[in-house]
Amino acid sequence: MPSLSDKNITDKRVGDKEVSEKKTGESEKSANYSTENINKLTASQWHQIYFSMMLQGHKIDHLQAEFYCYQQQQLTIPATLSISGKHQQQGAPLNNSYVVSPLTLITGYAKDEIPKVQFSVLRWISYKLIKCVEKPLQLAGVGSVQTLNNQCLSTNMYSAQWANIDLPALRKQALQTSNEHALLLRSLNNQQHAAIIERCEKDAWLAIVTRQVYLHIDWQAVVAGKDLKHDLKLLKQPQWQFKKLFLKSDIKRAKVLYDMLYLQKYSEHNIQFTLSYFINAVQAGLLSLYGLFYQEKMLATVGMVIIENNMTCPILGYDTQQPQKLALYRRASAFTIDYAKRHYLHFNMSSGAPDFKRNRRAKACIEYSYVYCQHLSKPKQYTWKIFAWLTQHFYRAILEKQGL
């Protein structure tokens, strides 16, 4: 992997050439999750390996970005600089992946979410508002930002050292890479990241409401209700078994299941991980990938990322052609909840399926992206400030009142 120093480590993402996969023998066996050592990588090691992996060929479809890495107070901080307009590869989609471009959350992903709003008038207002702000945001460069600590997951995670980060020093370091782009920190919430948010606000970063996420961070306070108790009983059925995945054929099947749910059923704007990403992330220890087997056939999958005592589940999928009575989503979700509880992990369940997650005793929490734009032109600063105000006074209210 590239060596790290106090200076920026820079390298642009390379082309679509796949890296060669290590061959895994057929004799490899599945591990029981209850006995797995989950802390094999430190936070610094995880980010170093991740940064190296993302430079080794095409890992996420519909993602146009250059990758950088910074060192700050013994923190390894990967970053992405999203590419748009004339700098995009020929034939690249207008909507870059939302993990590197906030604009896609508005022009693509948010539009997909509008049908979930209960009242037709509110749906109409939401759609018109998106159309009104789309072009100004595009002109202001909202689609091209430098995202710090970007793991390119639906939910980025922050190690404990971030609570003491010298944010002005990191900001100056990042602006040496590019002073034409706003800086962004994704996936911050007041329950897990109060100290980071306080530092952002002291350094004049703007708060942009992005989603409502669901957290399990205090397991002693969790009293399992009827739904969760029923789901956990599903894990004890002997004919169903979760196995950790090592074989390339199993990992390939897991990708198919993820695509069926997140891309084909939910939204094409979700993260489009390639097979190379799945294989390399598993082999490098970045992703713990499990398959749910019934009568020797894999019907569902979950992939968990764990950094220190924090966990998120960016990979979840199941065979959407199977009958609903098999309860595949409930089984997969129950596995992740049970896994986090057994290992006393702070589990950010991300957004989506709000009623389901509340019924499993997860706590709703507003998530923010914090943006630094003080170095940009006044018109761009004003656009960012208006955008932030709209999310705080309009979008947040929809999220909370509609329970999204």
* First and last CA, distance: 41 Å
Total DSSP helices: 11
Q: Runs with pLDDT <50, length 5+?
A: 1-35, 86-93
**Major sheet size, sense and barrel closure:** 12 strands, mixed
Encode the helix/strand succession as letters: EHEEEHHEHEHEHEHEHEEEHEHEH
Count of distinct strands: 14
Oligomer: single chain
Q: How much strand? A: 15-25%
Task: Please state the structural category.
Answer: alpha+beta
Explain the overall architecture:
It contains eleven helices and 14 strands. The longest helix has 25 residues, at 378-402. By secondary structure, it is of the alpha+beta class. Helices cover 37% and strands 23% of the residues. It has helices at 43-54, 102-113, 120-139, 167-177, 194-202, 226-234, 248-266, 275-284, 328-342, 354-359, 378-402; strands at residues 9-11, 60-61, 65-72, 75-82, 145-148, 182-189, 206-216, 240-244, 272-273, 288-294, 297-307, 310-318, 346-348, 363-372. A twelve-stranded mixed beta sheet has the order 1-3-4-5-6-14-7-13-12-11-10-8, with helices on both faces. Strands 2-9 form a two-stranded antiparallel ribbon. The radius of gyration is 21 Å and the shape is globular. Helix 2 (102-113) runs antiparallel to helix 3 (120-139).
